[in-house]
Every structure is written in C-alpha cells, then in structure tokens.
Sequence to fold (148 residues):
Amino acid sequence: MIKTIRSCHFLILIATIFAFSGCVTRSLTVNTNPSNALVYIDNKLIGESPVTVPFTFYGTRKIMIEKKDEDGKLTHERTIAFEKIEAPVYEVFPLDFFSELLWPGKLKDDQILSYSLVKLEPLSIKERQEKVLINAAELRQRVNAPEF
Fold:
C-alpha cells in the first residue's frame, strides 16, 4: 500500500513537472532597406519585408531578397546570403534538456537579420545590346566546347 502511494506521488510529481514545463519560442526576422522586398528562406517565399517567421532548427539558412517594380523588373540587386543561425547557450547540449522540458517559464529566441539593398541603375539600349552579345558569345563557346 505504501509503495502504491509513493508511486502515485511520484507520478503526480512527474506529471506536474511536465505540465508546468517551459518551452523555447524561436523566430527569425528579416528587415530590409527599402522595405517591401520579397524574402525567400531556403528557396521558399516567406513574404515581404519586414517579415517574422518561426523556426525549429538552428544552422545555416539561405536568405534571398529581391525588390521588383509593378512590371516585375528588378529595381534593386538581388541579395543572396547564407546566414548561420547560432543557438544560444541554453539551447546547447545538455542544457537544452532543461530549457526545453524542465524550465518553469517560456524562453524566447529572436534572431534579427538586416539588409540594405543596392539600387540598380537602368542600362541604356547600347549597354543592353552589348550585354546580350557577350552572353551569346559565352553560350556559343559552351555549346561548341567538346564534352569530357
């Protein structure tokens, strides 16, 4: 009888620990200057900047940002960055066990990335023609090159 009471108390203690255990909320915010640029994270469209998205795992993320006008033409240079999202100290093994399961409160990890976009200058017709001819010559060389 005493063993069952002790085991019941132990189970109640374990249930209480897990019921009041904390969690970690992670979010990634991307800000751009100018705002309203399209933001892609790992090749998935997230939305227009500034944008905040929750995430689960730390590590390297591919961030791509592009700003277009109404016609769909780029107005600013496309920015591609590989950002390493570092885990805070409380999320490193073995401390993560306590922060994820046993800590009595909620922890917040907000990662903020900021980018300044470079405005594209419109090319003249002559410059565009020269660029097309250079691209065509490079493509011709690749097509005529022997394959290995």
Remarks:
- The chain has one domain: 22-144.
- The radius of gyration is 26 Å.
- Residues 22-144 form one domain.
- The longest strand covers residues 23-33.
